[in-house]
Amino acid sequence: MGAAPTILLRDDAALRVFDTGQGRLPVVFQHGLGGDAAQVAQNFPDGPSYRRLTIECRAQGGSGAGSKRSFSIGMFADDVLAAADAAGIDRFVAGGISMGAAIALRLAARHPDRILGLVLVRPAWAFDAAPQNMLPYAEVAELIRSRQLDEGRDIFAASATAARFRTEAPDNLASLLGFFARDNAAVFAEVMQSIANDGPGVTRAEAAGFKTPTLVIGTGIDLVHPLATARSLADAIPNAAFAEVTPKATDKERHFAEIRAAIGSFLEDRFNNQDQS
């Protein structure tokens, strides 16, 4: 991931910030729920044209949670903006995976003067809070909070939700089961519960007013990030480009390679010759 992270203090939370590359185009790109900077590195085509900033959100990656126990996509978006300010980045392309895409959407709606473009990878939210596809996260969070971790994992593994995921989206199931093994499982369960019941806070009408170049990337065999959600966002945002990539459950390496290629092509085509000053 290049250079060692710096630490951004927000309230009493120490948040890790990764600032990579020396390119003229700044891109703030965020991980998904439970992810970290390594997840971003798998999906983003780091190269000489870009300067990428990634902040590991509270209680995720190597970042602390702080004493606050009311987490939200809005809070994470504010943290991202503070990291951009601290790095001296005024205008940037906002992007991310899943929760990171929701953060980018919120930034575009609340701070349009700061946003040069949008890259929304495997979005889990469109315009509604607490969508049905995020219910399994709330289910896992409740088991972590109410049971011993091993017991909770066994209960979830035997649940109807897990049975459906085992058949229709095994990669999603592996991620959900992995939350029971986190070192900070109890604190992260609070994050999961809050974020699963939240949303970007962006209306369809607001998205229809976006004027920045936008790329939306969707995939199949994914119950947490429905292809229909990605298409809905691409349809709502004027002139958005849409790319469907190979599902991770089918071919993981091809999945990541296609995402990196789609993002690289989009940034090259839309921003290569533009002055970002």
The total count of helices amounts to 11
* Fraction of residues in β-strands: 15-25%
* Anisotropy-based shape: globular
Distance between the termini: 26 Å
Give average pLDDT, whole number.
Answer: 96
Major sheet attributes: 8 strands, mixed
Overall helicity: 40-55%
- Give the radius of gyration: 18 Å
Low-confidence region ranges: none
Q: What order do the SSEs take from the amino end to the carboxyl end, as H and E? A: EEEHEHEHEHHHHHHEHEH
Q: What structural class do the secondary elements suggest?
A: alpha/beta
Strand order of the largest sheet: 1-2-4-3-5-6-7-8
Walkthrough of the structure:
- The protein has helices at residues 37-43, 73-86, 99-110, 135-146, 149-157, 160-168, 170-178, 185-196, 204-208, 227-236, 252-271, and strands spanning 6-10, 13-20, 25-30, 50-55, 92-97, 115-121, 214-219, 241-245.
- It is globular.
- With 277 residues, the chain is an alpha/beta fold.
- Helix 4 runs antiparallel to helix 5.
- Strand 3, helix 1 and strand 4 form a beta-alpha-beta unit.
What is shown here, in short?
The chain has 277 residues and is of the alpha/beta class. The protein has helices at residues 37-43, 73-86, 99-110, 135-146, 149-157, 160-168, 170-178, 185-196, 204-208, 227-236, 252-271, and strands at 6-10, 13-20, 25-30, 50-55, 92-97, 115-121, 214-219, 241-245.
